[in-house]
Amino acid sequence: MSDRQFCGNVDVLMSYLYEEGDPREREAFAAHVAGCEACATEVAAMRAVRGGLAAWAPPETVLDFRIVREPESRPRRVAWLTMPQLPAWAQLAAASLVVGVAVGISGLEVRYDQQGWTVRAGWSKPESAPSGVQQASTAADAPWRAELAAFEQKLRSELRPADAGVSDPGVRQAANAGARRPMGDQEFMARVRELIDASETRQQREMAVRISQVMRDFDTQRRTDLTRVVDGMGALEGRTGAAVAQQRELLNYLVRVSQKQQ
Amino acid sequence: MTVTDEELVARSVAGDSDSFNQLIIRWERPIYALAYRQIGREDDARDVCQEAFLRAFRALPGFKGQAKFSSWLYRITLNLCRDWMRRQRRAPFVQVPEGVDVSDLAAVQASPSESIEDVIGRKDLGRHLARAMQTLPHEQRSAILLKEYHDLTFQEIAELQGCPLSTVKTRLYQGLTVLRRELERSGVVTGVGGRS
Hints:
The structure holds two protein chains of two kinds. Chain A has helices spanning 3-8, 10-18, 23-35, 37-54, 79-82, 88-106, 131-140, 143-164, 169-180, 185-261, and strands at residues 109-113, 116-120. By secondary structure, chain A is mostly helical. Among the domains of chain A are: 3-54; 184-262. A two-stranded antiparallel ribbon of chain A has the order 1-2. In chain A, helix 7 (131-140) packs across helix 8 (143-164). The longest helix of chain A is centred in the last third of the chain and has 77 residues, at 185-261. Chain B is mainly α. Chain B is globular and about 55 Å long. Classes of the chains: A mainly alpha, B mainly alpha. At the A-B interface, helix 2, helix 4 and helix 10 of A face helix 2, helix 3, helix 5, helix 6 and helix 7 of B.
C-alpha cells in the first residue's frame, strides 16, 4: 500500500479513523500508517480533534415534558344553564329578579295567621274565609290589622310558657298571675328589648371567640414563618461560605499561573 | 427484558401514550444534546427537543419503520434546527463569551478527580470548539455531530442526509480538517501539525 491510497482516498482514512468498514482494508491502511510519517501525522491530528470533541458537553438541563392525552370530552352543558361568564353575585341577582317577576305575575300571596302559614297563587281561588273573621276584617277596614293582631297574640302565647318555666313557686305564682292578665304594650316592648339584648350579648361573645381564634392562628403562622426564615438564612450562609471557598481556591490558582508565566 | 423502540412505537401507534413517554425518556437527552450542539442555546434547544417529540408523536401513524426510530427522530430534530436557524437568521452556534468567566467556573461542579486546571482546560477547549463549529456548513456539522456524539454508522448518516456514503466521509473529513485548523490556530490543540 502506498501513500497514494491515503492522499487520494479519504474513504479509507475515515474508515480507519472511525474503525468502521472493511477490516482488511483498515488493516492494510494501518500497516501503511506505520511506515508513512505524513499519514501518521494526519491520523494523529484527526484523533486529537476527536478527543477535543469528546470534551464538549452540553449543559445539564431539566427535560421533563411528557405526552398527556386529554380526557374524553364530556358533552357540553347548555351555556345559559351554567352562565360561566357571569360572577356569582350577578347570577344570584338574576335569579332573584326572575323569582320576583314570577311572584309578581302569579300574584303570590304569603300569609301567616292563626291557621298557620298560607301561600296562595293569584290564579287559585281564595278559600272562603270563616264568616266571623270576614266580619272582623270588614270592621277593622283593613285585613292586615287582623293579621297583625293575630301575630301579636301568637307572640304573647309563646312568651307565656317561658315565664311559666321559673322554678321558684312564688315567682311561678306571680308569673301565672301575669299569664292570666294580658301583657301590656310597655311590658311587651321591655320583653322584646330583653331578647334583643340577650341576642347582642351572644353575638358579641361569639365574635370575641372568633377574634381570639384568628389571633391565635396568625401567631402560629408568624412563628412558623420566622422559623422558616431562620432556617433559610442558615442554609444561605452555608452555601455562600462554600462559594467563597471555591472562589478563593480559583483565585489562588490564577495567581499561581500568572506567577509561573512571569 | 428491555422493550425495543420498535415495540414501543407499535404500542404508541395503538394509542398507548405511556409507551411514547418511555421513548421520550429514552431519547430526550441525545435529542437535546444534538439540538444544543446545532443551535447553541440551551432554552431554544429544549424547545426544539420538545417540538421534535411532539412532531414525532403526531406523525407516528405515518412512520412505517423503514428507518430506525432514533434515525427518524434525528432527522426531525435536524430539520427543526435548520428551520430555527433560518428563522433566527443568526449565527448558528452559541455566542461564547470572551475569556474565562471566573464566576461561571466557580459554579462548575468538578468531579472529585478533576482539578481546577482540568476544568479550565475542558471549558477552554469546549469554547474553542463551539466557535470553530460555527464556521462549518450545516451538512458537515450534522455529519460530525451524528458520528461523534450519536454513534451513527456512515450508512445511517447517508440515509439520514440523503446522500451517498462517500459524501458522508468527505463531509466528515472536511469538517474535521476545518476544526483541526481552527484549534491549532487558537493554540488549544498542539502537536497535530501536518497537511490540512
